[in-house]
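Exercise 7. Given the encoded structure of a 397-residue chain, write a plausible sequence.
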C-alpha cells in the first residue's frame, strides 16, 4: 500500500525528543533533522485534518527509533544489574504509542499499564528522566520511587504506568469523567479524550468491564486501546479469552464504538484512528481499539519465551513498523535519504547514551525519602518510627 521496498533496521536504536524537519519546506529533501529540536510537550497533530505531512512522518520515524534505541540500552542496563525489579520492553510495538498519541492533543490525559517506557517517550518525557527512574535515581520522573513500571509525567498529562493488571482501566474512566465535569459542570474545560492502554491480560478482568459499563452509561470520552500483541505473559490470547477473534463484540455489548487496527503500519494507524478519535472527542463518547501489534522481546526481562518460536518472531520483524515507514519516506516521499537516516540514528544513539550516563551519575534518593510522598494528606502518628511528610518537588515539575 504505502511501500516500495523494505529496509531492515539494525536493532533497536533511539534518541530523545524527535528531531524535527523544517515545517516551512515540507517538500524539500530532508538530509537529517536538527538534533537540538526538543518538543518535549508531546507535539500533537490532533488539529491536523488532512494527510500527514513529511514533517509529521519524520517525527514519527524519529520517535519510534528513539523508543527502539532506548529499549536496547534498557536491556543492556538491566543485564548489568543497573536496573532492578520488573522490566518490560516495548520493542516492536512502537507504532502503537507513537501513532495513537499523534492523534491526540497535548493536554489529553493518558494512562497505561506497566510496559510504559514507549508511551512516556512518545508523550514527551525526556530519556534522562525515564532512564534515571529505572535506575532508581532521584532525578527520575518519580524521584526513583516508581521504576520501570510507573512512569509518571504530569506536565505531559501522563498519569502512569500501573503494575496491577487492569487497574488503570477504571482510572481511564475517571480521568474522562474529570474532563467532562470541567467542561459541562464547571464550565472551565474543553472537549478532551483520555487514552487508556491495556494488554491482552486485562481484557477479562472485572474492573475493565465495570469501567466500560460506566463509560458508556455516563458518556465518558475514554478510548480503551488494547495493545493486542497476542500473548498475556506466555499465554496465547486464544487460550484465555473467549471469542478472541471478535474482540470488538465485547465493546459493542456496552454500546461502545470499536475498531480493529493493523498496528504495524503507522500510516494506516493515523489514517484510521485520527477520525475515530475526533469522533469520540466531538460526541464525548467512549471508544475501543483492538490494536494488533507484536512485541519482539519476552513479556519481561526474565521471560524465557518457550511459548513461541524464533520463526514466529522473525516473521513479525520482517513487517517492522520502523522499516516500513522508513521505506515509504525514502522511496515514495523522498523525505529522507540513507545519509539522513544514518545521521538520525547516530544522533538518537548519542542522546540515549547520554541518558544512561545521566542516570549513572545521578544521586540516589536520601533514605528519608522512604517517608515522603506516601500520603496525599499526611497525618500524625502514622508510624511509630518516623513522620510522613511531603518530599522535595518532583524534578519534572
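Solution.
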Amino acid at each position: 500500500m504505502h511501500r516500495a521496498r523494505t529496509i531492515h533496521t539494525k536493532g533497536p536504536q533511539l534518541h530523545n525528543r524527535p528531531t524535527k524537519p523544517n515545517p516551512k519546506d515540507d517538500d524539500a529533501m530532508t538530509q537529517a533533522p536538527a538534533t537540538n529540536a526538543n518538543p518535549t510537550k508531546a507535539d500533537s497533530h490532533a488539529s491536523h485534518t488532512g494527510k500527514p505531512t513529511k514533517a509529521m512522518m519524520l517525527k514519527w520515524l524519529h520517535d519510534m527509533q528513539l523508543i527502539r534505541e532506548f529499549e536496547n540500552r534498557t536491556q543492556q542496563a538491566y543485564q548489568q544489574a543497573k536496573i532492578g525489579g520488573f522490566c518490560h520492553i516495548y520493542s516492536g510495538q512502537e507504532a502503537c504509542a507513537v501513532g495513537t498519541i499523534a492523534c491526540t492533543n497535548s493536554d489529553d490525559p493518558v494512562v497505561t499499564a506497566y510496559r510504559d517506557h514507549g508511551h512516556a517517550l512518545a508523550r514527551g518525557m525526556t530519556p534522562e528522566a525515564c532512564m534515571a527512574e529505572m535506575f532508581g535515581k532521584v532525578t527520575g520522573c518519580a524521584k526513583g520511587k516508581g521504576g520501570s513500571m510507573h512512569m509518571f509525567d504530569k506536565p505531559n498529562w501522563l498519569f502512569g504506568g500501573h503494575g496491577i493488571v487492569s487497574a488503570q482501566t477504571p482510572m481511564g474512566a475517571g480521568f474522562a469523567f474529570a474532563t467532562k465535569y470541567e467542561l459541562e459542570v464547571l464550565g472551565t474545560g474543553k472537549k478532551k479524550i483520555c487514552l487508556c492502554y491495556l494488554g491482552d491480560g486485562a481484557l477479562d478482568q472485572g474492573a475493565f468491564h465495570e469501567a466500560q459499563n460506566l463509560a458508556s452509561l455516563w458518556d465518558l470520552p475514554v478510548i480503551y486501546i488494547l495493545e493486542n500483541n497476542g500473548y498475556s505473559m506466555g499465554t496465547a490470547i486464544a487460550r484465555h479469552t473467549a471469542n478472541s477473534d471478535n474482540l470488538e463484540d465485547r465493546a459493542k455489548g456496552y454500546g461502545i464504538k470499536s475498531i480493529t487496527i493493523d498496528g504495524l503500519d503507522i500510516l494506516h494507524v493515523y489514517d484510521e484512528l485520527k477520525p475515530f478519535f475526533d469522533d469520540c472527542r466531538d460526541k464525548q463518547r467512549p471508544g475501543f481499539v483492538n490494536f494488533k501489534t507484536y512485541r519482539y522481546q519476552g513479556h519481561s526481562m526474565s521471560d524465557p519465551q518457550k511459548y513461541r518460536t524464533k520463526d514466529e518472531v522473525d516473521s513479525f520483524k520482517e513487517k517492522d513498523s520502523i522499516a516500513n515507514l522508513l521505506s515509504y519516506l525514502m522511496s515514495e516521499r523522498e523525505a529522507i535519504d540513507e545519509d539522513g537516516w544514518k545521521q538520525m540514528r547516530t544522533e538518537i544513539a548519542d542522546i540515549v547514551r547520554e541518558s544512561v550516563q545521566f542516570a549513572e551519575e545521578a544521586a540516589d534518593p536520601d533514605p528519608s525519602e522512604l517517608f515522603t510522598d506516601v500520603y496525599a494528606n499526611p497525618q500524625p502518628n502514622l508510624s511509630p518510627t518516623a513522620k510522613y511528610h511531603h518530599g522535595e518537588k518532583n524534578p519534572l515539575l
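Remark. The first strand starts at residue 110 and ends at 111. Students should compare their own answers with the one above.
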